[in-house]
Amino acid sequence: MVQRTVVDYLRAAAAECPDKCAYFDATVRLSYGKLDRIAGNIATRLIRELQVSGRPVAVYMDKSPMTIAGFFGVMYSGNFYSPIDTSMPEYRLALVMENLKPVGILTDASHYDMARTYCKQVFLIEEFTDEEADDKLIEEQLSHMLDTDPLYVLYTSGSTGVPKGVVVSHASLIDYIDEFCAVIPIGKDDVVANQAPFYFDASLIDIYCTLHEKATMGIVPLADFSVPLKLLNYLEDNHITFIRWVPSALKMISTLKGFRTLKPSALKTVVFGAEAMPVKCYNYWYENLPDVTFIQIYGPTEITGVCTYYVCDRVYDESETIPIGKPFHNTSVFLLDEDNKKISRRDVTGEICVKGTCLALGYYNAPEKTSEFFVQNPLNPYYPERIYRTGDLARYDENGDLVFISRKDYQIKHMGHRIELGEIEATAAFLPGIKNAYCIHDAKTDKIIMYYESESYDDAKLTEDLKKRLVRYMVPNEVHRLEEIPMLKNGKVDRMKLKEMHANS
């Protein structure tokens, strides 16, 4: 059967294994058959009351298996969904809703009142478990859908404070999960442990690769990620075989030496990405779980989620950087220099650019921002061909694998020299006793300011050690120890917060 839309995957799973558990948490277990029925019930109401197709429906509710049912209900109605973070500040929520202008909001009882302030058409998820689906009505809606139609809008948290909605089509996600599952070891017998919020693109692997393989996904309680033993017990008790987590989640176990107490016996595959993996953390996992396959992935939300992968097969020296690897099939990833010339030589830094079906449609309701990053391929003057300029810098190593360097916007001019802040951060992170280290640049004073976490370093000692490892003009002008580096919910450092701290100091 040709999979034209993501809906086709759920229908196939519901027909083949209706009683198999698809998604579960501490209170709810949804089989593929029940998920399909609830999605049909939701779609029936949406079709009848909204009387539109191809429009955004916000899903504003806490993470649960019923949230996923909501996603599919919106799909079945012929519309596209946008998962909204229920904990975001009201001022940012207002910005998102103003940009999205949803025709309806699907929510739960605890967020109903807030949802009503942004849309007249609000639907409670609790009302949909026992309704009858109108299959004929749904089929009529789906018959008009194309694979190029939008599937979802994900709002990036970013560090600028201005939310951007990335619009992804059915075709892009189908290409993504088809190619991912063809390379990464995951199958029908796997049990996936979800860590990422559903409004973060890292969750796409958990949700949709589970569906693609007709596997099972469990939602890990958020509180477990602050207690290593609870987290490891969750993996053991639920026979988890596959995790795709951000490095900050993995670090919590390595920092507190969690494997001294328990090593998850069923775990087979650990996939990590979205931020740089500290070598110390990776080595701890690799050395303690020698039979597990470790894979680093890379890719921004704008190319659906992932475009390269690298299978790790050894311990790394702390002076090394783990590569982000090579592209998945049907995706082209290449480096451009400042003159838009393609880079082929190793150890020459360039901007990562991507082309292929994986590219998002663009930014929602933001044509100028779309045209800034989704551009004509400068290597092809002959016909229209979009590429996405990631703003990330990388180089090729001796094996032809890509190695991430830093963000393009972390490249600064300081004392007349072009400097990568990421290189300074990496140098500090290699020092034993440094947990996290991040830099900002004050352009007005031309100062580099570093913030770091450590129990064994003070500011003077760190500065002295950095002077031994960095050229003079790369040594930070100021270093400040923090109890905890401010982080965004997607696991990345909140550089905007660091800049605010500096401005207020």
List keywords for this structure.
15 helices, six-stranded antiparallel β-sheet, 27 strands, GMP Synthetase, Chain A, domain 3, 505 residues
Blueprint (SSEs and pairs):
Elements: H1 7-16, E1 21-24, E2 29-31, H2 32-50, E3 56-60, H3 65-76, E4 80-83, H4 90-100, E5 104-107, H5 112-116, E6 122-124, H6 135-142, E7 150-156, E8 164-169, H7 170-183, E9 191-194, H8 203-213, E10 216-219, H9 228-237, E11 242-245, H10 247-255, E12 269-272, H11 279-288, E13 293-298, E14 308-312, E15 326-327, E16 331-336, E17 342-343, E18 350-356, E19 362-363, H12 367-373, E20 374-376, E21 386-396, E22 402-407, E23 411-414, E24 417-420, H13 421-429, E25 434-442, E26 447-454, H14 459-467, E27 478-481, H15 495-503
Parallel strand pairs: 1-10, 3-4, 3-5, 5-6, 9-10, 9-11, 11-12, 12-13, 26-27
Antiparallel strand pairs: 1-2, 7-8, 8-19, 13-14, 14-15, 16-17, 16-18, 18-21, 20-21, 21-22, 23-24, 25-26
Helix pairs in contact: 1-2, 2-3, 2-6, 7-8, 10-11
Distance between the termini: 61 Å
At the first level of CATH, what is the class of the largest domain? Alpha Beta
Largest sheet: 9 strands, mixed
Radius of gyration of CA atoms, rounded to a whole number: 23 Å
Average pLDDT: 91
Helix content: 25-40%
Number of helical stretches of at least 4 residues: 15
Query: Which strand order does the major sheet show?
Result: 2-1-10-9-11-12-13-14-15
Low-confidence stretches at least 5 residues in length (pLDDT < 50)? none
CATH topology of the largest domain: Rossmann fold
User: How many beta strands in the DSSP annotation?
Assistant: 27
Helix/strand/pairing category = alpha/beta
Shape: globular
